[in-house]
Amino acid sequence: MAALIEPKVLKGFRDFLPPAEMIRRNLTEKIEASFRSFGFVPIDTPALEYAEILLGKGGGETEKQIYRFTDNGERDVALRFDLTVPFARFVALHQAELVFPFKRYHIGKVWRGENTQRGRYREFTQCDFDIIGSDSPAADFEILLIIHAVLLNLGLNVNIKINHRGLFNRFLSHIGQQENSVEILRTVDKLAKVGLAETQQSLAAIAGDTHAQKILAFIGADTCAAGTFDDTLNRITELSGGPSPESERLQQLRQWMQNVYGVNAGFTLDPSITRGLDYYTGVVFETFLTELPDIGSICSGGRYDNLAGLYSKSRISGVGSSIGLDRMIAALESLDRLPVAAGYTAAAIACLKQEHSGLYQALAQQFRQAGIPCEVFLEGAAAGTADHKQLLKQFVLAEKKGLRWVIIPGENPLQDTLTLRDLPTRQNHENLSVKAICSKIHQEI
Amino acid sequence: MAALIEPKVLKGFRDFLPPAEMIRRNLTEKIEASFRSFGFVPIDTPALEYAEILLGKGGGETEKQIYRFTDNGERDVALRFDLTVPFARFVALHQAELVFPFKRYHIGKVWRGENTQRGRYREFTQCDFDIIGSDSPAADFEILLIIHAVLLNLGLNVNIKINHRGLFNRFLSHIGQQENSVEILRTVDKLAKVGLAETQQSLAAIAGDTHAQKILAFIGADTCAAGTFDDTLNRITELSGGPSPESERLQQLRQWMQNVYGVNAGFTLDPSITRGLDYYTGVVFETFLTELPDIGSICSGGRYDNLAGLYSKSRISGVGSSIGLDRMIAALESLDRLPVAAGYTAAAIACLKQEHSGLYQALAQQFRQAGIPCEVFLEGAAAGTADHKQLLKQFVLAEKKGLRWVIIPGENPLQDTLTLRDLPTRQNHENLSVKAICSKIHQEI
């Protein structure tokens, strides 16, 4: 006999057993239902693309993390590392076939060969949603509403921190620091991670002490961003040289939030939110769980003004966001609020005589047709075993599977009345028809 | 400006635009609902595995087709090319955590770098379902039932052709050809593809003329497998030396089919079905659409007695099958029976004044909360455009998106009555409340 191959999975990759996979599906189905209720439609793209397309201008970090190789046809290919770059390529390729404004969602796996410490995985699921082909603040607003709706639907209360990169840049121009914008925004983006002292030092190194002080005042570092939305908006409007299209857009979003949610809307204006990526040009946001802020942002995004610029001459603007399913699950787990991973069936037909398996299935069909998913047990005990011992064994199996009921057929499974075993109470309800059992089960689930 | 990167996808790979992706999701949701109604639970496994695990003994064809490369950690890895091999590895690794008999399904993408002619893709979706840890014929039967249920649920009538490889081997032993079994079964497997004459020649080359004749008689090649299930079972039972556990199992399955479906059950006994793979040891089957038999088998499978033998000393037997989603979609398309790819929303709120976008969203929430997915249009026409022109533009957009209704708010969107535009009839229903519109829409969908 040949030596066995060790059945291991790659580091950073995971199997999902049924309890975990049922939770994942339950969550993605809920997220998807929220997307759909706002009129978003799904797309899909290949896992594998030309490396040139995924790497674009070639980013140092991306290049190191990407799964890239030469295929059998000598093509330079790679696994997608996010859903944004494939979306940009998709839009460039199919723009003539799309109806704009285009509201799409995409739930799919992505792969990054990054360091696997601290619960980072090399294969993980992202849930992206974007509106492209509209510059309207109503599009920004809708993306924010969806974040709110998705998380509320999962039983989570959130604080969405919003900012406007355009307004930040207007402020930097106002103090003569426009040319350092990229570096300054990246430095501010790390504030929560590295702390105030280090940020101040870094800013001073880039822009000098005086400007560093002004930048920290703009982002409200001294006040810990504790002001109301309106206070903060007044401050940054003033510091950026007075009212502008950017400050008006924030004002407009603020008003609409009050239309839908009232005053305490779960939205904060936080000028220290900049999102490191150059890609964003307008409103940006991060989402924190009110009960678990330390887990970091579980849903970030923003407005960009040139989605597909690497692949197309058309300038297509939009706004979008991405939910990391794995971080969401970790959060729900910490809060002990993961949905229970019960199976999809509540009942099983016991197997008393194996030669009756066809009749048991015919009986189960009657339950399935009444909308009750119903498993059929496939094996009775060995011949000669007493009926009650057979049944006890099957009750144990049913409990292991998380079932609530076992349906015990008679000698003539399709003619005789049935017994319904309620596992949690250990009670048998006897002499029942299929119809009586259906209404009992429907009543309780 | 840098040169543009051409936005192309790899040969054999596909983007799915919303109409196609909605169809795919609709179908997989239906397939999944069928699996769940029988008590099957989902698992997932990584797209990427150690190449050694996927290649196992190393098959010539597999090796040529597989996407295999060295990752950044110098590991020899590959993309999964089916869901069976990862399942075997999964079971070897997790057997202590599973409840047996274990009924699982797995819907996922697989990758093969094969020739892309004739509508074969390099990335495609498989839907696998298996019962492992049971030798019972009731497990074979349940897999057959599920095939029937899934396809019926998609509006397709099928003929499931069944055979038993053990009975075929018993017959070969009986005529002294056991040692040529693998070659003979593979040759017979190609009968439908290469025709009778070539099969006869090949069989004669393997086993001699006399035995070739006997084999053709066993598989019923002369009668075109036209006999009834019972006739054929009688013939192959006799030719294999009389009743045996294998013939009794087929007899048992036959009886159960009649229990559930009556006499014309859509099941045929066809001894020429052998499935080329060595892997199968018991009942095997292929599924043909009665209205489109030439498309070939859209769902094949069988019983195996040692799923995880490459990775574990435990012998785990089971029975399973796999639906190819792409072939299924091609079949439904040929039959003009693809579900319509309407969007998930039936109605949109028109945008008359963009500054009211917050109120339009608040209005839409009322519809969503009543269970009616409702889109909000984000942009009105340029200032100064007459209201009716704005609306006409939005009716056109709604039609392009496949919506049925547009809801037209008044000057005070949350206070005023609404107008409901029925796009197909071009009628406006005026002075309606949210409630009245909800009941009208619920009535019609």
List the helices and strands and how they pair.
The structure is a homodimer of 445-residue chains.
Chain A lengths: L17 H20 L3 E2 L5 E3 H5 L4 H6 L2 E3 L5 E4 L4 H11 L7 E10 L11 E10 L4 H17 L4 E7 H10 L6 H9 L1 H4 L1 H12 L1 H11 L9 H11 L5 H17 L5 E3 L13 E7 L9 E6 L13 E7 H10 L12 E3 L7 H13 L4 E3 L10 H14 L4 E4 L9 E5 L4 E6 L1 H11 L1
Parallel strand pairs in A: 1-5, 7-8, 12-13, 12-14
Antiparallel strand pairs in A: 2-4, 3-4, 5-6, 6-11, 7-9, 9-10, 10-11, 14-15, 15-16
Notable traits:
alpha+beta, 19% strand, five-stranded mixed beta sheet, 16 helices, eight-stranded mixed beta sheet, elongated, homodimer, 445 residues
Explain what you see.
2 copies of one chain form a homodimer. By secondary structure, chain A is an alpha+beta fold. In chain A, 41% of the residues lie in helices and 19% in strands. In chain A, the strands form 3 sheets. An 8-stranded mixed β-sheet of chain A has the order 1-5-6-11-10-9-7-8. In chain A, strands 13-12-14-15-16 form a 5-stranded mixed β-sheet, sandwiched between helices. The longest helix of chain A has 20 residues. Chain A is elongated. The mean pLDDT of chain A is 92.
Largest two-chain interface: A-B, 107 and 109 residues
Query: Spans of chain A with pLDDT under 50 lasting ≥5 residues?
Result: none
Distance between the termini of chain A: 51 Å
Multimer state? homodimer
* pLDDT averaged residue by residue of chain A: 92
**Helix segment count of chain A?**
16
Overall radius of gyration of chain A: 28 Å
SS strand fraction of chain A: 15-25%
Silhouette of chain A:
elongated
Number of strands of chain A: 16
Going across the biggest sheet of chain A, name each strand in turn.
1-5-6-11-10-9-7-8
Q: Main β-sheet of chain A, in a few words?
A: 8 strands, mixed
State the share of residues found in helices of chain A, binned by percent: 40-55%
Structural class of chain A: alpha+beta
